[in-house]
Design brief:
Layout (H helix, E strand, L loop, with lengths): L1 E9 L3 E9 L2 E12 L3 E8 L2 E8 L6 E5 L6 E3 L2 H17 L1
Antiparallel strand pairs: 1-2, 2-3, 3-4, 4-5, 5-6, 6-7
Length: 97
């Protein structure tokens, strides 16, 4: 999977746009963040207006927790980038089923 950063803006919420190229498919992905009372910054991964999943840095373990929008399961990741990649890969895998 190749992630190409397209831009980064600092506004009320952090917004990052990038292109994912995998299996000959190109996706425009947006990541933003919103403050959350339980999770600190909650990062959201979007494809257009479709929420693909969320992730946050765990307060109790040295990891990032990722969750696909269509799942109740949390996955532990080593970094924010891994969490983003897992969410996008999960979306792509579900599209191929």
């Amino acid at each position: 999977m190749t992630l190409s950063s397209v831009g980064l803006q600092n506004i009320e919420a952090l917004v990052d746009h990038f292109t994912v190229t995998d299996l000959g498919v190109e996706l425009e992905i947006e990541v933003d963040s919103v403050p959350d009372g339980d999770f600190g910054d909650l990062y959201r991964v979007w494809k257009s207006d479709r929420l693909l999943g969320t992730f946050y840095e765990s307060f109790t373990s040295n990891s990032w927790k990722a969750q696909a929008a269509d799942s109740i399961n949390l996955v532990s990741c080593g970094s924010a980038k891994e969490a983003q990649q897992w969410i996008v890969e999960n979306y792509l895998n579900n599209c191929l089923i």
